[in-house]
Design a protein that fits this description.
By secondary structure, the chain is of the alpha/beta class. Helix content is 35%, strand content 21%.
Length: 117
């Protein structure tokens, strides 16, 4: 099955990205072979920024995204959302990529389960 998780909120200050990625981690753990795709929109474009520094004991969205990508998840960032926030390609994490509404529409139509946060 193919899972699409669309995230809209900023990485910190809201726990929506944290909980969305926790869901992705759990899907990968409990259901090996399931395909997980994450699309970052609006303020969530900042979830893909590299070199995030968080206090000890606090979750780190960058590390969480790396974990799911290492297990096969794909992560895409809305280009126009990123550009509106001054996020450039060179400032995003390795393994993520800028994307378009066309790719989101393709993922949407190709997904068995879709969840938004």
């Amino acid at each position: 099955m193919k899972h699409l998780i669309i995230i809209n909120d900023q990485p910190y200050g809201s726990e929506k990205p944290y909980n969305a990625i926790r869901l992705a981690i759990q899907i990968q753990k409990d259901f090996p072979g399931e395909e997980v795709r994450i699309f970052l929109m609006a303020d969530a474009a900042a979830c893909a920024l590299k070199d995030q520094k968080t206090p000890g004991g606090y979750y780190n969205i960058e590390r969480m995204l790396k974990l799911i990508m290492n297990n096969g998840a794909k992560v895409r960032i809305c280009t126009s959302c990123a550009e509106a926030r001054g996020i450039k390609t060179e400032s995003i994490m390795e393994g993520t990529a800028m994307s378009t509404m066309a790719e989101l529409a393709d993922w949407y139509m190709d997904s068995d389960k879709i969840t938004t946060f």
